[in-house]
Structures are given as structure tokens and as C-alpha cells.
Amino acid sequence: MSGGPPQRRKQEALNARLDHRAPLVFDTRELGRRPGALKRVSRSVAAPKDLGIEVIGVREGATVELELRLESVMEGVLVTGTARAPLTGECVRCLEPLERELEADFQEMYSYPDADDRSRDADTGDDAEEEDTLFLEADLFDLEPVLRDAVVLSLPLQPVCREDCPGLCADCGARLADDPDHHHEAVDIRWAALQGLAESIQDGEKDNAPRQRGDDPQEK
């Protein structure tokens, strides 16, 4: 039976295979455990898969520019940063492709591996907060989950190509921005039904009209 609290075992399992060569894994060894020590890092990385939502996001492989500030504190390393990346998607009104520039700010605490032991000595009973704690593993941390959350929270849920985009015609699907005067004749369905009935009556009257003498070829 393995020792340590469940959250720590879970975090160790997640971080056990961190590779310092991975683009979103960062090394904090230069900071040591000296509170107040600072390190700034700039890095360009390829965007991971599924970095966004259904209608808009950062295309896999697109360049993400990261500016990070790593600060050693008593509990661990406080990471503050900004991510910049190109967005691609489609307008939810007219379905046209659109492009944007994303800038997302984030801040996250990565705790030292023994931080949970110290926190248990001063247990606050806040299990939800413990579940959200991220830990350093061998002085490394993985920025990907933090970056993913920051990007998704910064995205517009209903992206539009322009604020006043009129969308598509409900009748034929034409893009209204391309034809501002586009319209269809409005027909009241009640009058349309009456008109159809009148035409049916007229056709019936024509069929039942008496024939004039000489109209029947057999009489000749």
C-alpha cells in the first residue's frame, strides 16, 4: 500500500513522466527555495491539440508566444504569464471564416512536493481547494493545463466577423452582408390558402361548364 494522501499520489502519477525537453515543461531549479527569487522566461511553442472550443481556437501547431515570470515563495513557485497566439474560427451568424489575435493572462501556484504535508498540519477542511492544487515534480512543472484553461476562458463564446453582422437569410441562406437589399416577398399564409381554394373552384367551374353545340367532335 503506497503512502501519502490521495491528492499527492494523483499529482505524482500525473507528473512522474515530465520531460524537461517538452515545450510546455519548465525547470525551476535556478530559483532554489529562496523566497523572492525571480526568473523571467520567454518561449515560443507549437500549440497543442484542441486548444480552443468548437467554433474558435488556436490551430494545432500554431505559434504561441509565452512570457513568464517565475517567483519563488514559501509554498512553491508562483507562475504569472501571458500567452499570445493567432485564433481561427467561423462567425456564428454567417459562418464565414474569421481570424483574431489572442492575448490571455494567467497566474498559477505550483506547490513544493511537501507543501501538502505542511498544509495538513493546519488543515482548513477545504477539500475542493486541495483538489485544485498543482505540485512541482523534480523542480519541473507542466504549463499545458494552465495554458489551456487561460485560452479557453479568454475565447468569445459567440464569435462574429463583425459586431453588426446580419447573418444569413432565413429563407434561402444567402449572406445578407453581401446583399443589403436582399429580401423575399412576404406572403400571408392565410391569403395563400384562400387563393389556392379560389383557383381550385375556378378550375372546377371550367370543367363543369356546358359545351356549346359543335364543340363535340362526335356531333359532326
TrEMBL record:
<dbReference type="Pfam" id="PF02620">
    <property type="entry name" value="YceD"/>
</dbReference>
<protein>
    <submittedName>
        <fullName>DUF177 domain-containing protein</fullName>
    </submittedName>
</protein>
<dbReference type="InterPro" id="IPR003772">
    <property type="entry name" value="YceD"/>
</dbReference>
<feature type="compositionally biased region" description="Basic and acidic residues">
    <location>
        <begin position="203"/>
        <end position="220"/>
    </location>
</feature>
<feature type="region of interest" description="Disordered">
    <location>
        <begin position="198"/>
        <end position="220"/>
    </location>
</feature>
